[in-house]
Amino acid sequence: MPSAMSESAHTSHSTLHNDTHTTFPSSATTATDVPGSPPRKLRVAVVGSGLAGLTVAHLLSSLHAENGQGEQGIEVELFEKAHKLGMDAASLSVTCPCQKCAQESGRGQGDPDHEHVEGRMDVPMRSFFPEYYPNLVRLYRSIGVKFHDADNTLSCFDVTFGSPSASSSPTNRPMDVNIEDPYLSSRSYKVSSDHTITLPDLPPLSLLNPYPFGRRLLGYYRIARDYVKMLAVSKEFMTQGRMMEIGKPASEWGNGRQVSLREFLVSGGYSNDFSAFFVPLFACVCTCSFERMMDYPACVVLEYVARCMPFGRMQFVTSGVQEVTENLSKNIGTIHYNTMVEKIIESKEGEGYPIVLVDSFGVRREYDHVVFATQANQAAATLAGQMSSTKLLPKPFVTSRDKDYDASNFGRMEDHDQTDPVTPRNPVLDTVGDSHPFFQQIKTLAKFPYERTQVVCHTDTSFLPKDPGAWRLLNIAKAVHADILASPHMSDDEPEEEDGILLAGSGSDKEERPGLVNRKHKRSVRATSPSVSSSASSRRNSSSSDRSSIFSSSSYTTASQSHNSAMATHIMNNTASSLGSTTKFLQTTNPIFQPRPDTVISSAWFERAVVNPESMKAVDELNELMDQQAERVLSSSSSFSSSSSSSSPSEDNAQMSDRVWFVGSYAYPGIPLLEGCVVSAVQVMERIMGSERGHALAPSTRASQGSFLKRDEPMRERRRRRDEEISGGRDKDEEDNSASALYFRTSWKDTLEDERIWQEQEKIQAVKLGGSVEVNNKKSSSVGAWTDNVYVEVAWMLLLYLAAIVQWWMVFVIESVGFDGSRWAMA
């Protein structure tokens, strides 16, 4: 059941009214500036309490006036539509099934053989690689959140589906599901104090039938060959700052076209064996269907490969994200729970603040700035005034213990539609014209596509391979008929049915393409939900005009319950020891079939931003838009402070729309992950700081050296110098300086520099405390073994792989004669 700890943690600074919303008196009467007096405190509203919202609210609340010498300079109010902070809203504490706990809670007879557990499950799973998340790591370190690494073990297998059964009861699945043996599984091998290598498992060798062993060994050779080739290519392009040109012939460099991942794999001649491993793995990283995965620009995916592989180690927050939300929210002045923001309007003449926020209860509050930390589509709907059609607040998830739980309908997408009405499915486009104050923002936000995905927590071990010896930390499944490359020549006609599975296209006249997995099954399996079909139809019938095209590109598709997506099942016990080992607690993302209802603990639906060439350009547009807003606010505040002693909004040249900002994983280049939440929050904080010249905002001089803003000072200075260099050479330098171009040129260098600075700060801090100067220099928990020479790095990688292969072969020999070799490998 969900815990209420996050909400209760804020009772000291947030007063709940009828358990529905929080009301506070308007501060407009104190907003005017008296000549000669210090400027009044800024008021900022943050909408949404995911990681992006919590981070920007935490950072803004850490700023002080008078260049950090005075009191807190910004009054922050956070708005959350749910009853608890959004980052932890769907997480839950596991009910202990042991006999003592069952009797104490009145649940009758428990399990006398079950050990006591006090675990908690983060929903969705929050894993990260420090190499790709340097700012997230710095944030966690600054707020005292500890994290640990896990072995990068995985198991990949296929799922076949039979005909739907004649009868379907709440305890039976509607179709016959068969889990095949893994076609690839892996274990980790420690080759030094700093490095762990993951290698695939080999089946035992049978001299009577050596074909399976030989076929598997040949497949692993192809995977290893293509893996090394991809690593060498991606690292070389990254270190040369040409990541956006990867996959294109030299004659096309600089033309702005982005090669898709599909183009890269096909034109690069990557084998079927490699694609069957690589594509489902990254479809799980990006939490999307194969169709959406193949639309990803290759540079976005391969930059992740270059930074995280081969030495990266997956990390997890030791105590769960509940600690993250509690620590980030400690200094936030006011949190409004159960409050949905409906619209943003301009303040009336005579009010002290330029922008007004109206919530779902009709309460008006005035602010200097509003930061949207929601999804792009939700922010667009709010700005368009299209959130007022509903007064309902969503449930964070549905559990089998809810009184309105219906096992016979469990897992259908309609369940989520009924409980989460926050994003309008058919926006009233006529209300958004060129004269709308937020037209440009809405037009840009509408270019970010989303895909819906389901996350189910359960105990149904039929989602794992049949042999428990093949269970791994991450277990990835796909339908055996899946078209992994989502071939573009497949038709979007009405699907036909074959062997109980809905298929799209006839497949009789489809040409074979190199790199296509399962060539004898060339027909693509599509999502079959009504909403997906209607969204595809709406895309075909959409108008080409600017106003009509708003929201059309932000179509909704569904990865869950689609046979053309990867299903990832994470064994939670492997990363949370508090869950014990008696019962395997599982979390499945994008289930392609549903678990038995009696094993379900909870189910949640999410919308995940995905990347395509249009959304990459939208990131650049959004950042340019906010940079221009900051310049206008700065210009307006400067002229206002020097020529007027009144703070009436009518005398402020900055528009009301210039005071609305956007943060989130979608608002930053790269794969939309937690790192984007943190960096976009830092960027908006700096824009607000820089635009409010009259307030002289800065990190508090009394803040500890371990605080995020103190740790960020060297990086902030580096970003300032870079901006000055770009600004100074903008007219004569034709180099692309968009947000995406800068990211691919400099982010990996910034990661190295950030880690170096952190190590130096740790040494200095240790000396000041009189302790040992030793710090944790393990590369596996920082940034890997990077050098400026990609060939040196690849050579070092191959040397370590040779050491791992010695252990790998030893394990193979031991297991081939019937003994357990797991103690030689960290499975």
TrEMBL record:
Its keywords, alphabetically, are: Membrane, Transmembrane, Transmembrane helix
List where the protein spans the membrane.
794-814
UniProt lists compositionally biased (Polar residues) regions at: 1-32
Q: Does Membrane count among this protein's keywords?
A: yes
The source's domain of life comes to Eukaryota
Q: Which GO terms describe its molecular function?
A: oxidoreductase activity
Where is there biased composition of kind Low complexity? 526-553, 635-650
Q: Which segments show compositional bias classed as Basic and acidic residues?
A: 709-732
Record region (Disordered): 1-41, 488-553, 633-654, 693-738
The name this protein goes by in its record: Amine oxidase domain-containing protein
**Which species is listed as the source?**
Podila minutissima
Q: What is the lineage of its organism?
A: Eukaryota, Fungi, Fungi incertae sedis, Mucoromycota, Mortierellomycotina
